[in-house]
Amino acid sequence: MGSDAILYTMKTDSDLQIPFAWEERRPVLLEKCLYIPSWGQEGAHLGPGIWRQHEVFADPNLPLAIEFCSGNGEWIANMALSHPHLNWIAVEKDFYRAKKIWLRLFRQSLPNLFVVCGEALSFSKHYLEDHCLSEAWVNFPDPWPKRSHAKHRLIQKPFEAEMRRTLSCEAPLTLVTDDERYSAQMTQVFSSWKGNSSSEMPGYGTSYFHTLWLEKQKQIHYHRFTHGSLD
Ligand SMILES: C[S@@+](CC[C@H](N)C(=O)[O-])C[C@H]1O[C@@H](n2cnc3c(N)ncnc32)[C@H](O)[C@@H]1O
Description:
Distance between the termini: 36 Å
Bound molecules: S-adenosylmethionine
Mean pLDDT: 91
Helix content: 25-40%
Strand content: 15-25%
CATH class: Alpha Beta
Radius of gyration: 17 Å
CATH superfamily: Vaccinia Virus protein VP39
Largest sheet: 9 strands, mixed
Low-confidence stretches: none
C-alpha cells in the first residue's frame, strides 16, 4: 500500500469531472469512481466485470462491503480506514456528494475505497454479482416522511430482493434510521430474514446525519439482518 499513497494525494474539486455533454452521458469508469447517469442507459452498462478488469482496489481479493446512500462519506471513509481487511464501495446518487467522498478517498489515502455516483438499485442490478457482498449498510436513507412520498423510499421489496441476491448467506445487512415509520417499514420489508433491532450499536462510527440526530436527541434505530439462504 506504500506506493499507492503517492497516487492518493493532491486532488481538488475540479479533478473529478464527467467527460461528456449532458445528452451524451453514459456510465463511465473514472479514476476510482464509477459514474452512472440517472436516466435509461440499459445497453451502456459496463457490467459486473469492471471489478476484475480494472484496478479499482489496491487488493482486489479482499471481501467486499458496501454502503448505499453515503452522503458526504464521513462514515464510510472512517470504516475504510479502520477496516482495511475489507474493500468498501460508497454508493451516492448526488454528484456533488459523491465528489466529496472521492476527495476523502485521496486526501485520506484509502486504497480500499471506491466511489459510485449512481442510484443504489440500478448499481446493484447492473454491477454486483450474486453473493458477492460480505456486508451491506444503509445509513440514514432519505425517509420521505410524507405518506404520498413514501413510494420513493429505497427500502422496499425490490431492494430486499437485490440484497438477498448479492449478500452471501450469513453476511449482515445493517439499516439505520431516526425515522419511526421508516424503521417499521424496514422491519416489515425484511420480516422473512433473521434479525434484531436496537437503539444502540457499539462501534457504529459517525456520519453527518448520525451526529445531527444525536445532537437533537432523536432515537436512532439500528436493524441488522441476515437472509441465511443459499439460493
Ligand atoms: C439523509 S442522507 C444520509 C447521508 C449519510 N448516510 C449520513 O448518514 O450522513 C441520504 C443520502 O442518500 C442519497 N440517496 C437517496 N436515495 C438514493 C438512492 N436511491 N441511491 C443512492 N443514493 C441515494 C441522497 O442523495 C443523500 O445523500
